[in-house]
Amino acid sequence: MKVKVVVVGLFLLVSVVGCKKKKPANIEKEIEETTTEIPEVKEEEVEAEPEVDLSLDKKPETLPEDIVELNQYVVNEGLLGDIFFDFDRFDLRPEARERLAKNAEFLKKHPELIVLIEGHCDERGTNEYNLALGDKRANAAKDFLVSLGVNPDNLKTISYGEEKPFCKESNEQCWQLNRRAHFKIISRSKE
Amino acid sequence: MNRFLYLLLFLFCSVFMYAQEEPPPEVTLVVEGEVRAQLNLVFPEVISSSRDEYVKELDDALWGDLERSGIFELLDRTQLSKVDLTGDRKEDFISYRSLGGEVLLEVKASYEGEKIVVEALLYDLGSGKAILGKRYRAKKELVRNIAHVLSDEIVLHFTGKRGVASTTIAFVSDRTGNKEIFLMDADGKNQRQITDHRSISLSPTWSPKMDMLSYVSFVLGYPAIFVIDFATGNKRVLFEGKNFTSSSSFSPNGKQIVFSRSLGGNSEIFIADLESRSIHRLTYSPGIDTNPVWSPNGNLIAFTSSRAGYPNVFVMDVEGTNVRRISFGGNYNDGATWHPSGTKIAYASRRNGKFKIVVTDLALLETKVITKWEGNHESPSFSPDGRWLTYASSRGGGTQIYVTDIRGIYDIKLTEEGNNYSPEWSPYTKK
Q1: Whole-angstrom Cα distance, residue B118 to residue B99?
Q2: 20 to 30 A Cα–Cα from B340, which one of A4, A74, B38, B391?
Q3: What are A74-132's pLDDT values in tens digits?
Q4: How far does the CA of residue B11 sit from the closest CA of chain A (Å)?
């Protein structure tokens, strides 16, 4: 009789813990066995990644003070001005051609000036695609200036893609300001 | 009365015999495609004589990793605290099972000098068997790394595929005032700066062995590809010269890179040998060709081209032939990245004026929108196990990096400081 009671007790236990989840029923037996059954543990060393020394990184060069002032002057006097583009386009709008004609006039009078034409884009699209698009914009401006007689050797191009926005908000007004070719004098030859 | 007892006995014995014939299988879990099954995991607080910040860090990191792994339902610790543990393993296991627990993770931490030693045992509560044992030793500052490695081993045990907690995400951040390259752990912690050019640095991409990282920097006055060699910490410019280069991607053998280069205002795709620096050209189109990404098996290159009038994703073989378009929805498709299986490509697709992350199955050419929520989403990159996508989102002002599962249900924000862009998930290993 005593034996039977134990069996019932065990069964009830099993039905509460085991059967509900349809797990094998003989947990008690299994567990007794497992206390000694620990898998072999091999110790592993976890190491830090190598450090990168930031002090060695190249830093950009900056424009000389007189050139910075010269740029302010030509912009204020309207001698050199930027042009603007449609979304995902690099063809020149009529007003952009007019502006470029004025820029060409000024640059032909001052063949000593070396000018960097920066292509810019709005923030939409990937950084990489916009680099390519800004490049097309800068070169579209350059090609037009050259067609008007500006010495191609005096014109450098760079694309900043969407990386150097003039306006930082996310709306069409801002985006329009950022889709541009920007003109910057970078040096003046001595002769 | 007697009959009833015999019936019980019979029932008990039949269950017992069934179990004898077929030893209880260890708990396994198959995470396949879109089906998600979860195991109920009991993970009591880490056992340690000193409950200091490192032990707490271990506990937090491990809990987070296991939860994010997606394969466990972690048993609430407040519920766990209601259990009266006897110290008797047998009885305690029964108590855990009564809470619905299927697997138990027991973690102990101790110190040996400046090093922390972490010992973990995983039990199948069904059979009562210990099924996995691990012991790690590291400088105590690396305690999170131990948690990540341990979590990945546990995921490997149940799914047959290593977890991604110990992988790294490279990204671009403007938090210093300039765009620089940063790294972070897959859980968004431990964010660290790895370039300081104080110019514009962009587009990080990993080498397949994680021993190098390429990126684009304007520090020389024009966009140029740089390569960091992590063994030496050295950063070198890949090509000196006036033609700007960008968007690089390593070949799976790590010996070549595919990149885009401007030829007089027109961007074309080239392959360069890293050793000899010899290059050959793949694309010849008057439109923009950029953003090339090498496929995992090395045979194909996905890229963006405007040859169809607006940006679309194309695939070609490494000779530049057999070009085919794979993006058909949306009116601006760009920023392709391969699923590790090589069967799918994710990219940003502009739909109703907003960029969403979509995934196109290459065999079926079927496209699914993954990020359905508000804002613009760009720059997807898959985790090396293929179950997660990291991307940049501009929702709520500013741009931050998020991680979502491939079904687009979970969405976890990883960054806060400054704006953060172009996340690039590392491969599995540094070795």
Answers
A1: 26
A2: B38
A3: 999 999 999 999 999 999 999 999 999 999 999 999 999 999 999 999 988 888 999 99
A4: 9
Calculated CA dihedral for residues B121, B52, A43, B186, nearest 10 degrees: 80
Closest CA to B326 of B285, B361, B350, B278: B361
Q: How distant is the Cα of A132 from the closest Cα of chain B, in angstroms?
A: 6
Q: Are residues B342 and B205 in the same domain?
A: yes
Topology of the domain covering A65-188: 60s Ribosomal Protein L30; Chain: A; (3.30.1330)
* Together in a domain, B276 and B327: yes
Q: Which of B199, B214, B293 to probe the A interface (max A CBs under 10 A)?
A: B199
Q: How far apart are CA A49 and CA A37, in angstroms?
A: 36
Name the strand (E) or helix (H) holding A178: helix A172-178
Tens of pLDDT, residues B208-241: 999 999 999 999 989 999 999 999 989 999 887 7
Residue range of the domain that includes B41: 26-159
Q: How far apart are CA B204 and CA A74, in angstroms?
A: 38
Strands B234-237, B245-250: pairing kind = unpaired
Residues A52, B233: Cα–Cα separation, whole Å: 5
Cβ atoms < 10 Å from Cβ of B92: 19
ipTM of the complex: 0.79
Within 10 A of A52 (CB to CB), how many other CB atoms are there? 22
